[in-house]
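Weekly modeling sync, notes
Attendees: S.R. (lead), two postdocs, one rotation student

Agenda item 3: backlog of single-chain predictions. S.R. asked that every request posted to the team notebook include the full sequence so nobody has to chase files. The rotation student volunteered to paste the first one in as an example of the format we agreed on. Action items at the bottom.

Example entry:
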Amino acid sequence: MKKEIIPSLILTLLCILFFSGIYPAVIWGIAQIVPNKGEGFTIKDSKGKYYYTNIGQKFSDDKYFWSRPSAVNYNAAGSGGSNKSPDNPDYLVQVQAIIDSFMVHNPGINKADIPSDMVTASGSGLDPHISVEGAQIQIARIARVRGLDKSKVEALVKAHIDGPMVGMGPERVNVLKLNIDLDSLR
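Predicted structure, as returned to the notebook:
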């Protein structure tokens, strides 16, 4: 019995030391050398309110670019997807409702032209980005509602296109940054 208990206690103590001391200290140290010291990236709007640019925000007003749907209602306290399969009847009803709403608010858009990211949630439910196509398909609505020249809104979208992350993946647009700059557009 002593042969099993002593190695178990030693392993337990080593795990406690490593996972509650050494590992957090190493991660904290790495965070101190990256931009913003691991605190996340913030942006201030015209009213002086700060937002995290790496967490999706809900925009549903027609005068703003809409974000991706969120399975967690944009609650950053816990991220997660819906975990429903693409052929789940409840999920299909939910996606169809989002498509219908999108088409009502964006007249003249064909259902087939709506990018999938505009009607489906990301895996985390907190993705702050939409595809370039997702932003472009909303330009006409934004210009009409705000009484802006469509070319001004197109130029704003173009200025907010981020390249692929670490050289991989598609181009994308941060919705929060785009909408904050949209508010300052005249």
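Discussion: group reviewed the output briefly. The two ends are 78 Å apart (CA to CA).
Action items: rotation student to repeat for the remaining queue; S.R. to check formatting next week.
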